[in-house]
Amino acid sequence: MVLVVLGLAVIASMMGIFNLGHGEFVLLGAYTVYIFREMGLPEWTGMLAAPFLVAIAGLVIEIAFIRRLYASPVIAMLATFAIGLIIRELIRVLIGGQYYAIDEPVPGSVSLLGVDVSAWRAIIIFLTGALMVACFLFLTRTSFGLQIRGALENPGLARASGVSTTRLYAFTFAFGAALAGLAGALMVPLFSLSADLGVRFLVQAFLSVMLGGVGTFEGPILGSAVIGAMVPGFQWLREIPLFGIMVGDLIQPIVAEVLVFIVALVIVKFRPDGFITKGRI
Known about the structure:
By secondary structure, the protein is mainly α. 71% of the residues lie in helices and 3% in strands. It has a domain at 2-195. The protein is globular.
């Protein structure tokens, strides 16, 4: 989830638009693993290829469509929604509206902080942490990352300094797509592959970025942690003796997700800039 949020946050911060087709980049990453498996290749080969192939798809979309719409952010968002819808329906046609299970490349379970989790979940946690650190170092410790942050703060001054903002925007869009594609490839063994796989991640990623703050690195990560903890947190309320008796079976998973959206909207109402507003990407 954090990778999806980071990809969406980078695009939103750099370009000033929310990519409403970002969930379909997650779907493309998951579908890549499925295609490689159908070709008789191990699942992990599809997971390695997914971020690169989805990055290429994102680059093509940015050059062919999004680049012409930066002057109209609302139209650009609508365009990303339309592109995402086309991708989703194309994959729905290709997989026939079915649900497909993908085996976890690494079987077994391990204990993390006294909690037994599958080995694949543990690997995802480790890879996500490593990629978070890598993204932070890339954006703060490299000259290219400095150009990205400079273009984010003042695009006009960056162009006057000889920085190609067009190239930066293309790279940023492709980079965000690659993160989403990798997230989809890593998480597809935990979910059934379907054409609607990316929708749930888009909604949660959007809320996470809004809660954390657009233009920050730490904010979206904090927002994703809050969103990720809310659903099990609401369901945990059922375990409280007196409160559990009062609510009974009312707090089901779907009800908990609705409560998450309501709480998130209330927080955004009173803190429209998010939790963190100082540290820029």
